[in-house]
Amino acid sequence: MTTSTDLRHDQAEGLRRIFSEPRSRLITLVSTLPASEKDSMLVNLTASLSRTGNDVLLVDARTGNTGIATHFWRASALTLEDAVTQGASPDKARQRVRDGFDFMRLFSGSPLKEPKLAYAFNSIQNEAAQVILVDGEPDTDGALPLKTMEEGMLLLQLAATAESITSAYSLIKRLHMQLGRRQFDIVVSNADETKADVVSKNLATAAKRHLAVALNCVGSIPNDPHLKQATRLGKAITDAFPLAEASLAYKRIAIQLISN
After folding, report:
1. What is the spatial distance between Cα 33 and Cα 100, in angstroms, rounded to a whole number?
2. Is 32 helix (H, G, I), strand (E, B) or coil?
3. Domains of the chain listed by start with CATH number
4. Which terminus of the chain, N or C, has less C-beta within 10 A?
């Protein structure tokens, strides 16, 4: 006969097993740019990461219609929250998309703050993919949807404009208030390497001086017309135009993220 003590022991063993197993590299993208530019970054970066030989899962951890699910016309797809609520396997929420990688939505509505969802996501981290890229958005306090996302890599997307740089600093400050001192990685969109270097150094100087926060620039994406052409074709730029300037930039960033 199974006792309550046995059940607690089994649950504890399960948790120890999940948290002791090798985990996926978890990268959460937060962006200061419009949804279309953020989605372009997510699709092309995920495709480039998968071309490094890694199994990659793209996760929509947003609510509403600003998440990457809208890009794939998967806004009504089964979510991880649905799977947890229905007692189904977390894998039921995982889908293959046209770009050759897997995709998953976390929430059906408002973020579900319960241990079962965190447990399910942790099991995915251990089993589903070598790299998980998350479309994330901090709340007003700077907290990310799940605690484990705060422990992974945070990648901030910005552009080389005064408005975007100001928004990026405000976002870093909000995240810093929640997460404390830690490193943030940044990527600059619509900028050549020279301009991105100036932007990243100026932002890093301000963040270090006022917040004691370290920033690391992993690269930049040039304003390449091939990006829009690839989007119109419904393909990632690495597939549509593998030798385009932006395609090569994404490849370099993917390698940088994997090697960090």
Report:
1. 25
2. coil
3. 28-259 (3.40.50.300)
4. N
Taking 3-state DSSP, the helix, strand and coil percentages for the chain, each rounded to the nearest 5, stand at 50, 15, 35
192 DSSP 8-state letter: -
The tens place of each residue's pLDDT in the chain, 260 residues long, gives: 545 555 455 555 554 544 445 568 999 999 999 999 999 999 999 999 999 988 999 999 998 778 998 888 766 678 999 999 898 988 889 998 877 899 999 988 766 566 788 889 988 888 767 899 999 999 988 999 899 999 999 999 999 999 999 999 999 999 999 998 889 999 999 999 999 999 999 999 999 999 999 999 999 999 999 999 999 999 999 999 999 999 999 999 999 999 87
The residue with tokens 């948290």 is: 19
Helices and strands, number each (H, E), in the chain: 10, 8
106: CB partners within 8 A, 6+ apart:
59, 60, 61, 79, 80, 81, 117, 121, 145, 146
Contact 215, 32 (CB under 8 A): no
Tokens of 19: 């948290």
Q: Which residues contact 161 (CB under 8 A, 6 or more apart)?
A: none
Distance, CA of 54 to CA of 50 (rounded, Å): 5
CB atoms within 10 A of CB 9: 11
- Give me 243's structure tokens: 């030798």
CA distance 200 to 186: 8
